[in-house]
Amino acid sequence: MDAVVDCAGLTTREVNQALKRLAAEGAGEIRVLHPAARHCLGVAMFEAVRIRFEGSVGYLCCTLGDGADFEVLGDAGWSIGADMHAGSVLVHGGAGTNVGASMKGGTVVVKGSVGTRAGIANKGGTIVIGGDAGYMSGFMYQKGTMVICGDVDAGIGDSMYAGDIYVGGDLGTPGSDCVEHELTDADAALLAELCEPHGLGPKRGWTKLGSGGRLHNFDRREFAIWREAM
Amino acid sequence: MCGIAGFLSKRSDGPVASEVLGRMLKGLRGRGPDSTGLGLYDPSGNGHYVVRVWCGDDHAAAEAAGERAAAAFGVDQHDFDSGVLRFAVDAAVPVADICREVEGSDAHVEVFSVGRALQIYKHVMDGEELARAYGLEGSPGRHGVGHTRLATESRIDVQHAHPFWARPFADICVVHNGHITNYHKLRRLYEIKGHRFFTGNDSELLALYLAHRLEEGATIREAMEASVRDLDGAFSYLLATPDGLGMCRDRVGSMPGIIAETDDWIAVASEPIAVHQAFGEAAEQASFRELGVGRAEMWTL
Fold first, then answer.
1. If you measure CA to CA, which chain B residue comes closest to A8?
2. For B285, which residue in chain A has the nearest alpha carbon?
3. Contacts of A94 in chain B (CB under 8 A)
């Protein structure tokens, strides 16, 4: 790696400005030392640059990205990779709530377990979680692919519109209008492609979940469905 | 917002809670600059209750409260420091009697804590100022809780700062991050039962709620589990007892609550940054996880 930013002694703004400056100068790879679980590191990086955090990061890190590739050699806090348009985040440890919230593209991989609402309102990103995911993961999910290798807490895929969620462990109690879909050979190939490079696989066996489509339009005759969903 | 922090050393020769919590709160300062508080457990007491009474700058009220304690319970000495009257009293005296006697001295006098080990320190200042004001440097004890407050719905003053003592239960206190939305409804119910509220802070309700459950015969763990069912809103809170540290999180996980653990200690907080601030590079070796939604967990010395 040809460039280094040491967070010790710098404000978060100074760290992010240094990352921007180094990327603009054409640094291909940047090592970031002593991130110490600080928040908002590596926000809005639009350059094709590889950034490696050599420690844990805090809340809202690697968010709003459009082309940068991040690696976190530790854990991540809430909202890692949220609102990403393109690029990638690879977290070697676990992560908090809201992993990849509202992503529009790109890939977030968390090798460990994550908190609640992983992939909430995903609009086209790819999310891979090596461990378990918390309550209401995939809530209001709209597009894209999320793979959870372990167990999920209650409410997976609640009120999802479209997109695919694959779970490798216990489904818990799925959310409103989240239904099982048939696994195809194409699904199996996709899962292998997403998981195997990271040494990940299903805890037991894969289940594919998607929208039941019953909440797309309000029909008075289906009032009971809505009452249950709300 | 608000920041909560809790620490429990698994070893008797581990770091002292007062110093770890001070550093953790520094890391959480961005979550709340309005006031700081600590609930510390000093195990070296002689079995007497230590009573901490908030009198503010009213020296006359403090003097009157001290005299009442002397007359009623034979308290022969007390000190008054940074707004707090402090004295020791025989633990055979019912806690409710201590409070009634002392708080009878003046309307704004409030007992902040009673305990064989617990002392609650809180003020409208940051953690370093608090430690200086009350001489907390090196204060012994393996566990405790801390809080840094962002006031949202009630006033900023010392009484509204956390921790809140679960009166009349000696040695139990809580710190809270979030908002209890059925506060007004529950407050009215408790007031009908005769409980007095000292502040407009919904977190005070949390302490009173737990005390009420304990009065009904629940164990600490049962009281915590019931609280998650009975209280509405977005909250995570910590509770400390003479030998334990507990954590609860609301049923939808709106408020953060992380647990960091090593072979030597447990640290819980609103954000992992608190643990990193406290332990530096060593925090990278701790295992971190979020408390599950609607869950209550407890760790003991």
1. B280
2. A74
3. 288-289
Q: What is the CATH number of the domain that holds B177?
A: 3.60.20.10
Edge-to-edge strand list for the sheet holding B118-123: B118-123, B35-41, B143-149, B3-9, B265-269, B258-261, B287-290
pLDDT in tens, B230-265: 999 999 999 999 999 999 999 999 999 999 999 999
Other C-beta atoms lying within 10 Å of the C-beta of residue A104: 16
Q: Do residues B26 and B149 share a domain?
A: yes
B290 and A136 within 8 Å at the Cβ level: the answer is no
* B168 prior amide bond cis, ω within 30: yes
Q: List residues bridging with B180 in a β-sheet.
A: B233
Here the ipTM equals 0.92
Distant-in-sequence, close-in-space partners of A142: CB < 8 Å, separation ≥ 6: A121, A122, A123, A124, A160, A161, A162, A163
Residue B170 lies in a domain: yes
Note the pLDDT of residue A223. 80
Alpha-carbon span A153 to B153, nearest angstrom: 32
Contacts of A107 (CB under 8 A, 6+ apart): A87, A88, A89, A125, A126, A127, A128
Residues of chain A contacting B281 with CB distance shorter than 8 Å: 55
Q: pTM here?
A: 0.95
At B104, which CATH number? 3.30.70.100
Q: Which of B253, B281, B289 sits opposite A116 (nearest CB)?
A: B253
Q: What is the pLDDT of residues A111-155, one digit of tens each?
A: 999 999 999 999 999 999 999 999 999 999 999 999 999 999 999
Find out whether the peptide bond into B43 is cis, omega within 30 degrees of 0. Answer: no
Residue written as token pair 């009630």: B154
Cβ of B288 and A38 within 8 Å?
A: no
Token pair listed for A84: 């990403």
Domain membership of residue B121 (yes or no) is no
> A97–B272: do the CB atoms touch at under 8 Å?
no
| CA–CA separation, A75 and A85 (whole Å) | 22
